[in-house]
Structures are given as structure tokens and as C-alpha cells.
Amino acid sequence: MPTKLLVVDDENGILEEVKTFFEEEGFRVFVAESGEEGIEILKREKPEVMLLDMKLPDMSGLLVLKICKESSPLTKVIVNTGYVDQLLIDQAEELGRDIFLQKPFDLQVLKGEVDRLLGI
């Protein structure tokens, strides 16, 4: 069974690029353009890894992270944002984020981080 990856981001270009790349790597990829949609998919699919943008149109990425860790504690979370805000990074770490990546990120770097989280 392929590894499930959930990408929660409001930028269509990122959703498409990450989805295409990881599907070619053999992953089953789910995408969500909002926090609410991401939470629905998370609860239904229980992905092994979630790539989570901190700036979403409907809610804070921190709230999505908190809900993720409560409803799917085994899901590894890679937090990403285009804005380096140390307080935000620290808050995400306190809530259980596994890795922080700054946008823009290289897909090979992202793949390396996903593999590391999965112990591959």
C-alpha cells in the first residue's frame, strides 16, 4: 500500500507540483486548499505525512497542526511558510511539528525530509 501524503496549501502551483512529484515517487497524494478541507482529509485518510502551510485562507496552520496531532497523532508534519517568524516556528514546534521548511523549497529536499521522517 503506498504511503499517504497530505498537502495543505492555498497555492495551486505548490499543490500541483508536489502532487505530481510525489505521485511519480509512488505516493498516494491528497491535496487541500484550506484548513477545513485538510482536516476532513486528515481524519478520513490518516496520512503518514502532512505538508502544512502556516498561512491558510480560512484558519491558522497552527490550529490545523493542533487538530492533526489530536486526531491523527502518528501523522508526521512538515510545516512550511514563506515568512520566517520565529514565534510561529516555536509555536509549531510546541504543537508537535516534525520539520520546518521555508518556501520556496526544493522538491528533492522535501523528498529527503519525507524519507527521513518515514525512516526510508
UniProtKB/TrEMBL annotation:
InterPro entries: Bact_response_regulator, CheY-like_superfamily, Sig_transdc_resp-reg_receiver. It comes from the Bacteria. Signal peptide: none annotated. Residues 4-118 form the Response regulatory domain. SUPFAM superfamilies: CheY-like. Keywords: Phosphoprotein. This is Response regulatory domain-containing protein.
